[in-house]
Design a protein that fits this description.
Blueprint: H1 3-19, E1 23-25, E2 28-30, E3 37-41, E4 48-53, H2 57-74, H3 79-95, H4 97-108, H5 112-132, E5 141-142, E6 149-157, E7 160-164, H6 170-183, E8 187-191, H7 198-208, E9 216-219, H8 223-232, E10 236-242, H9 245-255, E11 262-265, E12 271-274, H10 280-290, E13 305-309, H11 313-325, H12 345-360, E14 365-368, E15 372-373, E16 383-384, E17 387-390, H13 397-400, E18 407-413, H14 416-424, E19 431-435, H15 439-448, E20 453-456, E21 475-476, H16 482-489, E22 490-498
Parallel strand pairs: 7-8, 7-10, 8-9, 10-11, 12-13, 12-19, 13-18, 17-18, 19-20
Antiparallel strand pairs: 1-2, 3-4, 5-6, 6-22, 11-21, 14-17, 15-16
Helix pairs in contact: 1-4, 2-8, 3-5, 3-7, 4-5, 4-7, 5-6, 10-11
The structure holds 1,4-dihydronicotinamide adenine dinucleotide and magnesium ion (MG).
Length: 506
């Protein structure tokens, strides 16, 4: 173990220990009412790193009470003042960047160099962006359609916002939800993911230091026991969720009886399409980047259906396999690792389940990977080789369902019409990528593809000021941009004021 690796690990373990068994309520780290605990494990080693409170409806009530009390004062603070506080909070995140990125790598198993550091940087940038937009929240002034009347709309805070996040990008998704909600004058109760609770808690602890107590509250726990009472709580007026498509549907149903607005960022089975005229210098690395192999494929935007024109099929796959073979998998806190560990044993089993289906199909060709990594440095951690498959029929569950692991399927095609039909033949509509030099084709792709996040000749991850969200069964609404802050975290009043008649006679 190098000195840096050991230093990173000690820093992260220290924070995990300090934050163990804590929730954040009314500005303070406290113990939960529930005495049940969730074991938290380092995905890189399988070792226990701490515990998170298994909060239930009583803790939900305390957290929502704290947020509701804070709301009545917070909404009256001028928007620019709220923004300045968030800017100060973002600066604090910068000061404690080392702690945040190492704890993120420990929590998630996402490699420090390739994932945890960029996610931390992107999260600080996003917090600054929303802080700076505080003064831009405004309604509209209408022309005098009704005689003698002033007509305008307001953009007001909604109240207590419930944010529920998954484990795959727990830092970015935390700030993507809480920063716009808080800057717009709401208060928040965040429920962290049971597999990776610590980094989100650390970041909220730091942000809360620059905010009045109770504006930001954090609880941990399981979906049914903690998430559902939080959504259903009568004082929660808005829900924002990122996670699986099946839970997204439950969340919409739980929020429906009180007509509570819901933003949903759900899964995808995203096409990454390489046309025969594509620039392979960028398209081949685009297969690797697009699949998010350095995040173990645990990304909702993962381009897991790789459609390649038959004329260049072998050449592209040969190049992709060459690149895959150069990636180093290992402990997330070791900066020489390109790829880290899968979040949990349960999630590793999901990859094994889909690979079992693939292996049982006689037409499957495993071009790279295809095995769980065991023994040696992989002993007791959750590792699976980055895997590229060819030959599976598009109808296979491996090509249709979200594996959320490091498994991509290559699929050959003959024509643009054929590939578009296949790419759109899914319940999902999250992201899609096309590689071509033909502008006309590119624009036709943009017109015809059924996806909310569409890229041509690149496959970057969503970031600050990129309006991001899915269509079809991949979600409801957009996040990460100014319009999302207005659309999802404010409510509007329409105001009509009769001008009256002046009674001063001069
Ligand atoms: P999940 O959707 O069950 O969990 C995400 C969050 O929702 C967690 O905080 C969890 O505690 C909470 N939750 C679960 N059930 C709930 C309920 N009934 N009410 C309220 N909150 C609830 O995702 P999970 O189980 O971690 O992963 C399973 C699969 O979901 C993955 O393999 C992947 O396919 C998909 N997924 C997609 C994500 C995305 O970014 N689109 C993120 C995480 C998972
Ligand atoms: Mg689940």
């Amino acid at each position: 173990m190098s000195d840096d690796f050991k230093k990173n690990l000690d820093l992260a373990l220290g924070n995990a220990k300090r934050l163990s068994n804590k929730i954040l309520i009314d500005g303070k780290l406290i113990s939960a009412k529930s005495s049940n605990k969730i074991k938290v494990v380092n995905p890189s080693t399988g070792e226990k790193i701490g515990e998170a409170p298994q909060c239930d409806a009583h803790d939900v009530d305390t957290a929502v009470g704290s947020a509701e009390t804070a709301f009545h004062k917070w909404k009256k603070i001028p928007a620019r003042e709220r923004g300045k506080m968030m800017t100060a909070a973002a600066r604090k995140l910068e000061d404690r960047r080392d702690e945040i990125e190492t704890l993120l790598a420990l929590d998630t198993g996402n490699a420090l160099r390739t994932q945890a550091k960029p996610e931390t940087a992107a999260s600080i940038e996003l917090t600054h962006m929303f802080a700076g937009l505080a003064g831009e929240i405004k309604g509209e002034n209408y022309p005098p359609n009704i005689p003698n009347t002033i007509h305008y709309t307001t953009k007001d805070p909604i109240g207590v916002v419930c944010a529920i996040i998954p484990w795959n990008a727990p830092l970015f998704l935390t700030v993507a939800k809480i920063a716009p909600a808080i800057v717009a004058g709401n208060t928040v109760v965040l429920k962290t993911a049971e597999q990776a609770p610590f980094c989100a808690l650390l970041v909220c602890e730091i942000l809360q230091q620059e905010l009045p107590p109770g504006v930001l509250n954090v609880i941990s726990g399981y979906g049914e026991e903690c998430g559902e009472p939080l959504i259903a709580h009568e004082k929660v007026r808005k829900v924002t969720f990122t996670g699986s498509f099946s839970v997204g549907k439950i969340i919409a149903m739980k929020a429906a009886p009180k007509l509570c607005p819901v933003t949903l960022e759900l899964g995808g089975k995203n096409p990454n399409i390489i046309m025969s005229d594509a620039d392979l210098e960028i398209a081949i690395p685009g297969v690797i980047d697009g699949m998010r192999y350095t995040r173990q494929g645990q990304a909702c935007t993962a381009g897991s259906r790789v459609y390649i024109h038959e004329k260049i099929y072998d050449k592209v796959l040969e190049g992709a396999v060459d690149k895959l073979s150069k990636l180093k998998m290992g402990n997330a806190l070791d900066e020489t690792s390109d790829i880290g560990a899968i979040i949990s044993e349960e999630q590793l089993k999901r990859t094994l389940y889909y690979m079992d289906i693939a292996k049982k199909n006689s037409s499957t060709e495993i071009l790279h990977g295809g095995n769980q990594s065991k023994g040696g440095e992989y002993k007791d951690g959750f590792y699976y080789e980055p895997t590229l498959l060819s030959g599976l029929p598009v109808s296979s569950p491996v090509c249709q369902e979200e594996v959320f692991g490091p498994v991509a399927c290559a699929i050959p095609f003959k024509s643009f019409d054929e590939v578009m039909k296949s790419a759109n033949d899914t319940q999902f509509g999250l992201s899609a990528v096309l590689w071509t030099k033909d502008l006309s084709r590119a624009l036709q792709f943009v017109d015809e593809i059924e996806a909310g996040f569409v890229q041509v000749n690149q496959c970057v991850a969503p970031r600050a000021n990129v309006s991001y969200g899915g269509i079809k069964m991949s979600g409801l609404g957009k996040e990460y941009a100014f319009d999302s802050m207005i659309n999802h975290f404010t409510q509007s009043k329409t105001v009509l004021i009769n001008r009256g008649k002046s009674n001063i006679d001069v």
